[in-house]
Write a structure and sequence with these properties.
homodimer; alpha/beta; 434 Repressor (Amino-terminal Domain); Rossmann fold; 3 domains; six-stranded parallel beta sheet; six-stranded mixed beta sheet; 13 helices; about 15% strand; DNA-binding; HTH_LacI (chains A, B); transcription regulation (chains A, B); Peripla_BP_I (chains A, B); Lambda_DNA-bd_dom_sf (chains A, B)
DNA sequence: ATTAATTATGCAACCGGTTGCATTGAAGGA
DNA sequence: TCCTTCAATGCAACCGGTTGCATAATTAAT
C-alpha cells in the first residue's frame, strides 16, 4: 500500500506516466483539466515520488553535506557548534534540501567518509571545516566538480576555495578597546602554546590586539611560552606584565585557555584582581567565580552565510560571493 | 572524466556490465581471472559506483536519519547532545551507512521534514527524540514500515516502539545516596514547574530520589510550586526545608534549574552553605562559584545503543532487543 | 570421445522517475 | 473547406546500477 509509483498514478488517471511527471514538475504544457484530475488522484492516494529515482533521473541528490574531522575539537567537541548547525539547517530547509552530516572517519582499509561522499556523489554540495581541506581533499573536490564552502578561514588560496569566518581581527580589537575603556592599560594576551598559535584564528586575534594597543600607545605583550603551564608560571612570576607587575587584564584566545587560567586561579587568589576576557560566550559565564568579558560571535549567522554561499554555487548563480567575514560585537 | 559508469568499466574489460556488477557485489560465480582483470581496471580508473543508482536498484538508501524537534531544547540546544551524536555516528560508520541529520521544521504550506523523510524513503531507519513521536508520526512510520528507535523513554507503549534512555530512577538514587554519604539528612529535590514535571525523566528522577529517602527513613520533599520563581521564593523563606530550616542539599533536576539556583544565589549568600547536585556534567562545573555534585551520564553509550538497536531492526535480525536502559555512575 | 553436470558470462528486464521527439487533436487563417 | 500552427499527450530512451534466466564454456563422469 505504501509502494505507490508514478505508473500507478498514471494508470488511475488513464494517462501516460510522462504526463504525471510533467504535473509533478510544474510543466506548463498540461491542460487544466488533466492537471486537476492527476493532482486529485495524487492527493487522494497520498502519492509521494520516490526521491532516489528522482535523484537518478536528475543526477542530483537534493542533499547538502557537512563533513568534519572526527577528532576535531573545534567542531562537535565545541559546545557552541550546534549554533552553526542551526544556521546551516535553516537555510537548507528553505531550499527544500536535506542535510547530511558526517564525521570523516579515517580509512581503515577502505575509503574515508569524505572520499566516499564525494566519489559516490552522495551530496550536491559540501560544507567542511578548514581543518579538513588538505591538498588531497581539495583535488578530489575539484575533480568531481563538487561545490564546497569552508567553515573557518582557510590559508589555502587556491581557485574555488571559499570560506566563511568570523572577523577575528576585529573581535580582538573590540575586546581590547573594551578593556581600555574600562581603564586598563596593562593588557596581556594569552595565546597558548606555539602549535596553537599557528592557527589562523589565533594569529588574527593577536593581530587585532596588537593593532589597538599600538594605536593607543600601549605595549602589546603576548604570552609566548612553549606550553601553557610555562606561560602560567611566567605569569605568576610577573614576567608577563609590565615591569614585573601583574597585568590588569588578560585576553584568553580560546575558552580552553580561559579555563586554564581559572584552574590556576585556585592557587593564586590575586588573580581575582585581574580582568579576564575571551571570544566565546558560554551561557554559563555569568555563573563563574570570576567575571569574564567576551565578544558575541554570531555563529548562527556564520552557518547561514556558509549555506547561502554554497547554494549559490550549487545553483551556478552568475556571481557567487567570494569568502565572507562575519562581524562581531561586544557584549560584556 | 569523473563520470565513469559501470558500462565504461565493462567496455574496458570487454565484458557485460552484469559481470562487473557481480564483481562489485562479491558474487562468487566469477572466474578468478575475470575478477582480477575487472578489479584492476576499476582500481586503475578509480571507479566508484553511483550510490543513487545503487539505491534505486536495491530499493535502499544506506542512510540512517536523525530527526529532532526544531525547537527542542533537549536536543541541539543541549550542550551535551553532541556526545549522543558521536555515539550514533560511530556505529553508523561501522555499518558503512551514512548519517542524515535534520530538524523537523513544521510544515509551512507543505510537508514537514519528518513527513518528507519517511514518505520519500530517504532513509532506511530513523532515530528520533521522544518528543517527536506523536500518534500521527507513529502511524506514518508504521504505514511506511520504517524502522525507528526513540532517544529518550517514551510513554507510548505501542507495538514497535523501542527506546533507549538513561536509567533516571537509578541516577537520582545514586545522587541521593551520595548526598546522604556526605552526611546530609535534609535533602530537597527541585523539580521545576508543573509542566516540566510531567516529563517522564523528571518523574523518574523524583521517583529515584523518593525511594532512597524513604528507605533511609528521611523525609522526601519536592519543591512543587507552580513556577520556578515561586519555588525559589518559598525556598528562600525556608518552607522547602525541614521545619522552616534551610535544607543541607538541593538536587536540581535539570541544569537549567541549577542555573536558576545559582542566579538566585547572587542575592542570597547563605545558599553557599548548601550542597547542590544535578544530572549533567558540564566540563565547566569545576569552575563554578558553587561546587556541584553530579552523576555521569554516558551519552555516547546511549547513542551507540540506539544506533545498534536500529540496525538490528533494519537488518531484520531474528531477535531485536526491546527498549534499553543505560546505567549511570556517580562522579562527584 | 561423448554426454552430463557445473561454472562463468551475456541478455534483457527492472528499480521509478525524467525528457526529447513524434503524434494527435483542436483552433486559426486563407 | 483545407492547410497551417500550436498546445496536449504518448512513446521510448535514458539515468546507472542489479538480477533471473538463458546460453556458452568448462570440467567431470561414463
Amino acid at each position: 500500500m505504501s509502494k505507490l509509483t508514478i505508473q500507478n498514478i498514471a494508470d488511475l488517471a488513464g494517462v501516460n506516466k510522462a504526463t504525471v511527471s510533467r504535473v509533478l514538475n510544474g510543466n506548463t504544457n498540461i491542460s487544466e483539466k488533466t492537471r486537476l484530475k492527476i493532482e486529485k488522484i495524487m492527493k487522494e492516494h497520498n502519492y509521494v515520488p520516490n526521491s532516489i529515482a528522482r535523484g537518478l533521473a536528475f543526477n542530483k541528490t537534493f542533499t547538502v553535506g557537512f563533513c568534519f574531522d572526527y577528532t576535531d575539537k573545534k567542531a562537535f567537541a565545541n559546545p557552541f557548534f550546534y549554533k552553526v548547525l542551526q544556521g546551516i539547517e535553516d537555510v537548507i530547509y528553505d531550499n527544500e534540501y536535506l542535510f547530511l552530516m558526517m564525521s570523516d572517519h579515517d580509512k581503515k582499509g577502505g575509503k574515508s567518509t569524505f572520499e566516499r561522499i564525494v566519489e559516490e556523489h552522495r551530496v550536491d554540495g559540501l560544507l567542511l571545516p578548514d581543518t579538513l581541506l588538505n591538498q588531497a581533499n581539495y583535488d578530489l573536490l575539484m575533480k568531481h566538480e563538487m561545490p564546497f564552502v569552508i567553515i573557518g578561514e582557510h590559508s589555502l588560496r587556491q581557485e574555488g576555495v571559499r570560506w566563511v569566518d568570523v572577523d577575528n581581527v576585529q573581535a580582538a580589537a573590540i575586546l581590547t578597546e573594551r578593556l581600555i575603556a574600562l581603564g586598563h592599560r596593562s593588557i596581556v594576551m594569552y595565546a597558548g602554546a606555539a602549535e596553537v598559535r599557528r592557527d589562523k584564528f589565533i594569529a588574527d586575534r593577536m593581530e587585532g590586539y596588537k593593532a589597538v594597543m599600538e594605536q593607543r600607545g600601549l605595549e602589546a605583550r603576548i604570552m609566548e611560552q612553549a606550553d601553557s603551564l610555562g606561560a602560567l608560571k611566567a605569569f605568576e612570576g610577573g614576567e608577563a606584565g609590565d615591569g614585573g607587575q601583574n597585568p590588569e587584564a588578560v585576553i584568553c584566545c580560546t575558552h580552553e585557555l580561559l579555563f586554564e587560567m581559572l584552574d590556576w586561579e585556585h592557587g593564586n587568589p590575586m588573580l581575582k584582581e585581574i580582568s579576564l576576557a575571551t571570544f566565546d560566550n558560554y551561557p554559563m559565564f555569568r555563573h563563574l567565580k570570576h567575571p569574564v568579558h567576551y565578544v558575541e560571535i554570531d555563529l548562527e549567522m556564520m552557518g547561514k552565510q556558509a549555506a547561502g554561499l554554497l547554494f549559490s554555487l550549487i545553483n551556478k548563480e552568475a556571481d557567487p560571493a567570494q569568502s565572507i567575514r562575519i562581524p562581531t560585537s561586544i557584549v560584556n
